[in-house]
Each structure stands twice: as structure tokens, then as C-alpha cells.
Design brief:
Layout (H helix, E strand, L loop, with lengths): L2 H6 L5 H9 L19 H14 L6 H11 L6 H13 L3 H5 L2 H5 L24 H15 L5 H12 L2 E2 L2 E2 L6 H13 L9 H4 L20 H13 L7 H9 L19 H14 L4
Antiparallel strand pairs: 1-2
Length: 288
């Protein structure tokens, strides 16, 4: 058992977690969070790679997974999914494979041409990807494969991101945890140093709850804002106010099949939720 898996196993059922992931790997090298379906996809495959990487475990038959991700990079593929495939390839030691297909991204996302929202397609958070979300994923993926934006491209992206500045965070009608993190991460990845935002702390729930919310002074907590807030605090060099309570919150989200749901209410497991839960645990346990 890997050391990271052992550490996290202090808080959750690690054996059922590993079974949950392994049983959902398919012959084509991809993953599907519903084990009985052969509908492998980039999203689940990306998060399976992230889970194995976080736990310090070798991904099984990674050559097949490299081939699966490369096949998924097509002109009709949504830009967020292409970015996930690129980052996944980089984590599997195949950044050069991603580089061979970089031109496809620029048909959909080209800051010098004002293209921030061409063929956005599927989203992680909102049903249809927002231009800011697409920017976050593309910048993150390009950094992972070692592609450097030009000075003009960086400036164009920064100008675009700053259009979402809203009060002490980033958002459309008001600052949200997700968009604030995505904006700050993007700016920092491009070499800028935006001021720290108090938004993440304003969304922290201690007391009876644990976790974080999307906007301040609201309930209940969900896994998505908890993940992005934890990432935001880490990015800004800040510490959580009640790590034990946040760990309690995450522990309640593990389902009997080993995966994690998004809220304290009933819900199904998926790979995205499972990775985010593990990432929050990994961050919070540093402060015990």
C-alpha cells in the first residue's frame, strides 16, 4: 500500500476506494464511473489518473490509457475535454503526444483572435462551459505539457480574466468560489500575482457543518466549492480555520461502493467527486 494511500486510509475506507476505481477500468484503456457501462470517457479517465497520481500509485496498463486519450483528441471534442486529455497525457509521461495535437486547441481557443468560447461544449460545473472555465483548463493543460504562451497571448488572457473581477473575487453576477479560484489560478499560472482574495475564508463553514459554500453566508456545503476553496487557500498560502471539521465533512461523503458523492444528502459516486474528496483530505490533514 502506497504511503499516501495509507495516510488517507486513516480517514476513509481505502480498500473500497481502490476497488471502486479498478473495477471501472475498461479494455480500451479508459474509465467509466458506472461499472456496468462500457461508455468510457475523457472526464472519468482524467480523474482516474488524478486519483492514482495523488495516491502515489502506478496506473494499470498506462500505455492503453495513453492511446485512449490520444484517440479522444478530435476536432469535434469540447475544449475542456481536450485540455483534460492533454493534462492526463502529461501525467502519464506522454506530453509529447499532446504537443502533436496542439493545433486543434487553437481552432477553438485563441486569445489573440478573441476566441475564448468557440465550441465550448461540456462543462465541469455549469452544464455548458463558461469562457473562464475553458481558459482555466486550457492554461492548466498547456502548463502541464510545457507549452508557453507568448507575451501577447498572456496579456490577452489576463485582460479577459479580469473582466470577471467582481468585488473581492471573480464571478458574473457576484463572486463565486469556483470562478474565483479558476481566475486566480489562471493568472498565477501565467506569471501574474493577483491580490489575495478573502472570498474563500468567507465561505468556510465550521461549527456543525464543515466544508465550504459557493457564496458567503449560505448553506449547505457541497464538495465542489470545498475543493476549490481548499485549492484557493493553498494557492494563497493560507490555512483552513477548522481542518478537523472539514475532514469530518469529507468522510460523510464516502458511499458504500468506495466512491464519493457531492453533498451530505444522498447521491451517487463518481470519479470527479472522488478525486476532489481525496484532494481536500490530502490538504486538510496537513493541519492536524
Amino acid at each position: 500500500m502506497g504511503s499516501k494511500l495509507y495516510e488517507i486510509g486513516r480517514f476513509i475506507n481505502a480498500d473500497s476506494l481502490i476497488r471502486y476505481i479498478e473495477e471501472r477500468r475498461h479494455e480500451d484503456g479508459g474509465y467509466c464511473f458506472v461499472s456496468v457501462l462500457d461508455d468510457t470517457n475523457v472526464n472519468d479517465t482524467y480523474y482516474a489518473i488524478k486519483i492514482y497520481d495523488l495516491l502515489g500509485l502506478e496506473i494499470p496498463e498506462k500505455e492503453r490509457t495513453v492511446e485512449f486519450l490520444e484517440r479522444a483528441i478530435q476536432p469535434q471534442t469540447a475544449v475542456v475535454a481536450i485540455a483534460m486529455a492533454f493534462e492526463g497525457l502529461a501525467m502519464l509521461g506522454a506530453a509529447d503526444v499532446a504537443m502533436e495535437h496542439i493545433d486543434i486547441v487553437f481552432t477553438k481557443y485563441n486569445p489573440l483572435e478573441g476566441k475564448f468560447a468557440v465550441g465550448l461544449g461540456g462543462s465541469e460545473e455549469f452544464g455548458t462551459a463558461t469562457p473562464l472555465e475553458a481558459t482555466y483548463w486550457v492554461v492548466k493543460a498547456f502548463k502541464a505539457i510545457g507549452y508557453g504562451f507568448s507575451a501577447d497571448e498572456r496579456d490577452a488572457i489576463r485582460t479577459f480574466v479580469m473582466r470577471f473581477r467582481n468585488g473581492n473575487g471573480y464571478g458574473v453576477k457576484g463572486p463565486t468560489t469556483t470562478m474565483t479560484y479558476q481566475a486566480i489560478h489562471t493568472l498565477r499560472a501565467l506569471g501574474y500575482r493577483p491580490p489575495k482574495s478573502p472570498h474563500f475564508r468567507n465561505c468556510e463553514l465550521c461549527g456543525d457543518w464543515g466544508g465550504f459554500t459557493e457564496v458567503p453566508y449560505s448553506l449547505p456545503p457541497y464538495l465542489e466549492p470545498t475543493f476549490y476553496a481548499a485549492r484557493g487557500l493553498e494557492l494563497q498560502g493560507e490555512t483552513p480555520g477548522c481542518p478537523r471539521r472539514h475532514i469530518w465533512f469529507i468522510r460523510q461523503l464516502q458511499n458504500p461502493n468506495g466512491g464519493f458523492r457531492r453533498s451530505l444528502e444522498l447521491g451517487i459516486s463518481n470519479f470527479q467527486n472522488t478525486y476532489r474528496a481525496l484532494a481536500v483530505l490530502d490538504f486538510m490533514k496537513r493541519y492536524l
